[in-house]
Amino acid sequence: DSTCNFEERVLANVTTRIMTCYLPIDRYNILVEFAVKHMDFQRAELESVLDLYGIKLHSPDCQILPLPSPTTERTRPFLMLSFPCELKGPRFHLEEEEATNSNEQESIASILSRCILVRSVIELWGIGTTIEDCVDCSKQWKESCLGKEIFGKHSDSSKSWKLTIHTLGSTFTRQEQNDMRLNFKFFDFKGPVKMKEPTSEYIMIREVELSSLGSAVYPRQDCSKKTIPENEARPPLAVYFGRILGQGRATKGRGDVERYSLKKRNYLGPTSMDAELSFIMSNLGQVEKGKYVMDPFVGTGSILLSCAIRGAYCIGTDIDIRVLRGRNEHENIRSNFAQFGLPRPELVRSDNAMYNRHYRRSAVPLYDSIVTDPPYGIRAGARRSGSRSENPKPVVEEWRHNHIAQTKPYAVEDVMADLLDMAARTLVMGGRLVYVIPSFSAEFSVENDLPQHTCLEFIHSCYQPFSPELGRRIVTMKKMKAYEETRQNEYLAVVWKNGAESAEKCANIRDKLLEAAKKKPRYEEKLAIRKEKRKKTKDAKKRAKLEHNSDSNIDKNQ
């Protein structure tokens, strides 16, 4: 197959040399470069962010252009978007210069920079399957009316510039990169070259096939840095040229992800959602300044913190009062918010299974977004208020203040049904629910096995694999119909399309993982090794604690 694709691309390179430019030069075109990570989330996050600003993907106002060399079967970390030159909205401008002069509007580049998985946004000037094709296309663009207008703004002698060569996992010498630069000397930029913080940064990207880890599938050189002839002969998938918009290419850390990493927080738990996925979920939920956001399974508040960073008013609830209180005054949810200078969230101890008993029923829905990671029984099992005993003892009056209520197991299928019903009841019209649900990739059907609700419309399902058997889905839904109290039982009856069969695929995940593990070779041997390691670690902690207490007693006596 790879040989066939290689021959097809060589033929395509020959035929496309006589074609005109790939770009519609009468439209404003940009190239979006994604980080090679969470590939299934990229399009959903970008579409949600654009929709937040009134830009509809796949519409005449925002077309997706096909990438060159479409024969590859791998997901590529690029997306080309094309806009009408005259496009303007109440909240955005196409070009940075226009948006800079407006306090209420943003440029397309600044809008897309909100996407955690977007690495760079490039104003596209040329494209091709070879450098020669890209040069020809760039020349055509430069001579177009739009090209003359844009190029004229950035070619005067007062503006510094630099030209970056990005070869995507392939190593080229400095001389080879300079030779690539010389192909674009016809632009004849008048300003001084400045390698650090230039006024404009131009870039040529040579795209090759990448693995899921971001490395070249057919590397140009081997481990000893010797050129591999057959790989050297392979043509690139595409060559792009343009001007980098916004703050430049994000190479390490990617802004908010690094700054708000879990490693830097005072208070964490075993189920704390990592910063990257938390920000992606907030984008899927279209969280922004001034909106009300709810997390009914708030835990240590990791998702809610990312929503607060977006400027939302945050409300979180959890059934476990100990998690809400934290370990001490310096290690709790509010201390995490204070650590980053964020307003404290509203925290309430409540049970989502009994939402109507905790909150006053209001005719006016409150929340713009509900973003949450429900417990589904892998690291932490779901609990609801109640006792396993048929005749529980009443709580003595003087103990009520510090009393921790009894709880009992909460079936995952009921967790999801109650969550969707609560969202349908409390979201504003058009508000979004974003939640996490586990699934076994081989047997799970998005259409038939995800929970549903009459008032909510399915928008996205993004899959994150953990192993060949197990993964989790980040699901986005949108409220499209008003909730009717008298139809609650009817709503709950159709949550699972195939009844118990669908619900079972999201339940008992821990048991299913154990069953799958037992089928693997040498399971018992590996289990014994893990048990022995855990025992040694536990004993070492006990010894360290005893030694610490002994030293403390000696210090006190002295």
Describe the structure.
The chain is α/β, with parallel strands linked by helices. It has 20 helices and 19 strands. A hairpin with a 4-residue loop joins strand 18 (456-465) and strand 19. Helix 2 crosses helix 10 (275-284) and helix 10 packs across helix 11 (302-309). The termini are far apart.
Strand content: 15-25%
First-residue to last-residue Cα separation: 78 Å
| Individual helix count | 20
The chain-level structural class is: alpha/beta
The oligomeric state of the chains shown is single chain
Estimate percent helicity.
25-40%
- Describe the largest sheet: 7 strands, mixed
- Strands side by side in the biggest sheet: 2-3-1-7-10-9-8
Low-confidence stretches: 6-20
Mean pLDDT, to the nearest integer, reads 84
How many β strands by DSSP? 19
If you compute it from the alpha carbons, what radius of gyration comes out, rounded to the nearest whole angstrom? Answer: 28 Å
- Give the overall silhouette: globular
